[in-house]
Every structure is written in structure tokens, then in C-alpha cells.
Design goal:
heterodimer; A: mainly beta; seven-stranded mixed β-sheet; four-stranded antiparallel β-sheet; globular; B: mainly beta; six-stranded mixed β-sheet; about 0% helix
Chain lengths: ~120, ~110
């Protein structure tokens, strides 16, 4: 089954404790992306990647890191999480980025609470 | 400036009626894509419909159609014959040649029996 898998689905942690949210897709997609969703703000893009070893900042990259060492994986790293990073996070992938009918496939989301 | 604007935080529609969800966008690119996604209360993001900036005809997918008015920079979603299962959050999104995606703040649609 074609899917984007995020782990964990839920996490409660404390300020400053490094964490990684994993994202994996099995569709051989070139483009992968991370979003955060906050009430009243919609989804905002954190980072995206066009291919292995190619990553770019989205609208809200501060406090996050990503890496794309393999095509299928795109982990999101919070080196020193803070309470303002409490949010619902989505990973997504699509065959290609840019313009074109390339709808993104989304993971089920990761709800992060940072105390 | 906001790239995507959805001005209707909440909408109500009677079952079997049609409803239009508004979306305006801001871009200086000639080539761009517009998407609509549905997010039910269960939280997953479901792709509904796509419109390319060079597409001359409005996109349609079953009960969903996109009313694309390029000069006005609007891309409204029309849902015909609303069903109870259409109750959800709806997001308009845009991709540009720079590969970034932009989402609006969403419209919460409630279908009334």
C-alpha cells in the first residue's frame, strides 16, 4: 500500500530534550516536505526536499533541522525543543515538486507537546 | 502578504445543496498550481482537486469543481449536492516554480441534515 509513515504519532516531552520525528515513503517520490499545523494558521511549510541531499527552507524553518540521506526518508529534528513548537506535524511526499498536478500524499500526523 | 487567503473560517450548508468555499492567492509567477485538500475530524489530509495556471478549463472531480478566475486570482471550490460526510476542514494551497507550497488557514464546513 502506498503510504507516508510518520513516527511517533504522539509525543509529550520537555524543553531542550532533542527529538526526531521520522518520515518514510514507499512511493519512490522525489519531493518530501514537513508542515506544522496550528489552529487559525493552517499548514505552514517547515522544510522541503527535491531529492537526496537537497533540502530547502520553507516559511517557518527556525528551530528545526532535516536531512535527506536516502530517497525514502526525511526525518525532522528538533535539537532543543521549546513550548512554541507544540503543534501537529505532517510529513508529505509527491512524485515531483514545483508546478504540475503533483498532489502531495500526507502522513497521519505527529502531535508534539513540549512542556 | 499572504500567499493564500481563505476568508470564511466557518460555513454551513444544507444537505444536498451546493456550497462555494472561497480562496484567493497572490503570486507573480506565470506558472503555478492550485490545490484543495479536505481534512476530516480524524485528521488526515485528503487531496480533492488541482488546477494549473495554464489550464483553460475549470477542473472537475466528481462533485468537486474549481471555479478558477485567473484575473481575479481566485480559485474557489464548489461542492455540489453536499453530503454529511463533507463536514470537514478545507484547505486551499498553491505551488510555485520555486517548489514551495503555501496553504491557507482553512474553512470549516458543516453540513446540516
Amino acid at each position: 500500500e502506498a503510504q507516508v509513515t510518520q513516527n511517533p504519532r504522539y509525543l509529550i516531552t520537555v524543553t531542550g530534550k532533542k527529538l526526531t520525528v521520522t518520515c518514510s515513503q514507499n512511493m519512490n517520490h522525489e519531493y518530501m516536505s514537513w508542515y506544522r499545523q496550528d489552529p487559525g494558521l493552517g499548514l505552514r511549510q517547515i522544510y522541503y526536499s527535491m531529492n537526496v541531499e537537497v533540502t530547502d527552507k520553507g516559511d517557518v524553518p527556525e528551530g528545526y533541522k532535516v536531512s535527506r540521506k536516502e530517497k525514502r526518508n526525511f526525518p525532522l529534528i528538533l535539537e532543543s525543543p521549546s513550548p512554541n513548537q507544540t503543534s501537529l506535524y505532517f510529513c508529505a511526499s509527491s512524485p515531483l515538486g514545483g508546478v504540475g498536478n503533483q498532489p502531495q500524499h500526507f502522513g497521519d500526523g505527529t502531535r508534539l507537546s513540549i512542556l | 502578504a499572504q500567499k493564500i487567503t481563505q476568508t470564511q473560517p466557518g460555513m454551513f450548508v444544507q444537505e444536498k445543496e451546493a456550497v462555494t468555499l472561497d480562496c484567493t492567492y497572490d503570486t507573480s509567477d506565470q506558472s503555478y498550481g492550485l490545490f484543495w485538500y479536505k481534512q476530516p475530524s480524524s485528521g488526515e489530509m485528503i487531496f480533492l482537486i488541482y488546477q494549473g495556471s495554464y489550464d483553460e478549463q475549470n477542473a472537475t472531480e466528481g462533485r468537486y469543481s474549481l471555479n478558477f478566475q485567473k484575473a481575479r486570482k481566485s480559485a474557489n471550490l464548489v461542492i455540489s449536492a453536499s453530503q454529511l460526510g463533507d463536514s470537514a476542514m478545507y484547505f486551499c494551497a498553491m505551488s510555485e516554480t520555486g517548489n514551495q507550497f503555501y496553504f491557507g488557514t482553512g474553512t470549516s464546513l458543516t453540513v446540516i441534515p
